[in-house]
Amino acid sequence: MAHPVLCFCPYLPLTSSVECADWEIGPVSSFEGRWADALFEIQAKAFLAKFVDGSGKPIENPSVVCRRGQDLDGAQPTGVEIEALEAAIAFAFLDQNPRYGAETESHLWTVVTSDNAEVYVWPIDVEAGYVTVRAGRMVSTLGGGYQIGDEELAIRPPLDLHLPLCAQHAEERTLEAVYRTVHLSASSPGTDRTADRLRVAIGWFVKAWRNTSTVLWSERLVFLKIAFEAITATDKSHISGQRLRDLFRNEPNTSNADAALLVWSPAETKCRMRHWTNREGIAKTSEVTELEHWFGALADARNTIIHNGIVPSMSYAEGTDYDGHFVFVAEFLFRAVVKVTLSQHGFPDLWRSRLWLTIKDFCEELEKQEAAADKGQTV
User: Fold this and answer.
1) What is the mean pLDDT of the chain?
2) CA distance between the termini of the chain
3) H-helix or E-strand spanning residue 324
4) pTM, rounded to two decimals
5) Cα separation values, 138 from 133, 135, 141, 222, Å
6) Pairing relation of β-strands 63-67 and 5-9?
7) Contact 248, 254 (CB under 8 A)
8) d(CA 69, CA 72)
9) H or E stretch at 116
10) Which burial class, exposed, middle or buried, applies to 313 when counting CB atoms under 10 A from its CB (0-12, 13-18, 19+)?
11) Which of 17, 23, 128, 326 has the lowest CB atom count within 10 Å?
């Protein structure tokens, strides 16, 4: 007989539930009275208490994932649902991180990493109180015979886990958009090439945000460059840069003030000279925009790492909005590229600020109320 399954994010601190397409994510306390089985609730809460931080202290505020509007019944999510949840939760919560800079260094305690957004799907033997502990992928280890009530049982955190010291939040529109898009690609690969590219690209982005010190800055740069290649469907950097430029240009109603959200600005022109060597070894020069110039420099850094085995300077300093550490500029720009791509793929205005979206919702609701009132007067 199959054991009920608990779906949860032990290292993601939330104060209230947030909706993600067909799901809800929130602290255990937000699901009081919504457990389908009393014994499952008891064993699940006891099991969550076994997750500890790096110092061995129990995690204070783990989050649980539940089907929207339903009870926690222990039903197993499908593989496609799990993949879509993992991508949506990771991207949406990472997207709430501020752009890294000197002014944010003192606020790193608020930052989320991929480890915080990791989704666990764990079967629990509620009758006997047993759980199985799995670890590893290349060499998988399996430990059985653990009872939830055993005092010595402790589930250790990922290497170099950082626990943000404040409750986190995510934009529900972003959760919805990424979940729907990845679910479509995972369930029907090949039917929507944009969805397929986003699914792969987000996976590389999430890898770049793992907090472990075993992943070097140079490796994170490579991960992010691959993410851009996936989303632009080419490994030719000058074409990739052009496609990124055109993606932003095709987004309607952007202004120079939006550079704080997009990095890119509609004021960008071909004002930079880009010197590069093609695959045949022929030197080339072309006039490019600020975005294309930065992307070319990112590609040069990647090629130096991969082809020459040398780690170049990780900073870009050309007096533009793209100045800064390659990894942090790339991850912030990549987030904007994903949201603009989704905006042009059925989820309009996704890249805009939370305040802008809230005001838009308010205005649309007001228009509906006025239209309903006018209709009532007519009738």
Assistant:
1) 92
2) 60
3) strand 324-325
4) 0.93
5) 16, 10, 10, 22
6) antiparallel
7) yes
8) 10
9) none
10) exposed
11) 128
